Amino acid sequence: MTKQKKVLYIDMDGVLVNFQSGIDKLTEEQRVEYKDQEKNVPHIFSKMEPMEGAIEAYRILAEKFDTYILSTAPWNNETALGDKVAWVKKYLGDTIYKRLILSHNKHLNEGAYLIDDRPHKNGAGDFKGELIHFGSERFPNWDKILLYLMPNA
Known about the structure:
Elements: E1 7-10, E2 17-18, H1 19-23, H2 28-33, E3 49-50, H3 54-64, E4 66-71, H4 80-92, E5 100-102, E6 110-116, E7 128-133, H5 142-149
Parallel strand pairs: 1-4, 1-6, 4-5, 6-7
Antiparallel strand pairs: 2-3
């Protein structure tokens, strides 16, 4: 009998995806029109690049854990859902096939871990499992998370 893998959820924006990289690619007109609401610019999620070390870390973690992406799409951005699916396919390929969950209620999911950069948004703070706060002093980057989750690797 094989041992069942622990479930690990990883947020997209600010964890796998460098949100600022999309903002940096906006036109001046878009910056003015969507000032302080950049997440609602149509197709902004298709412009974003991965966070440093994120793709490699995801692939390493996917070998050890039952890994899913758990993210939220802005309600007022109708292209966000499709753009997030396309981003995942582009950067993670078949390793993420049917493992993308888009929800405004992360607390409805249960697993061993949730890696998220905003522990007080969209139910992340009430997640049923251990919340790993990406970008915090303890977990500032992917290297620290890999060391924590796989100390003997």
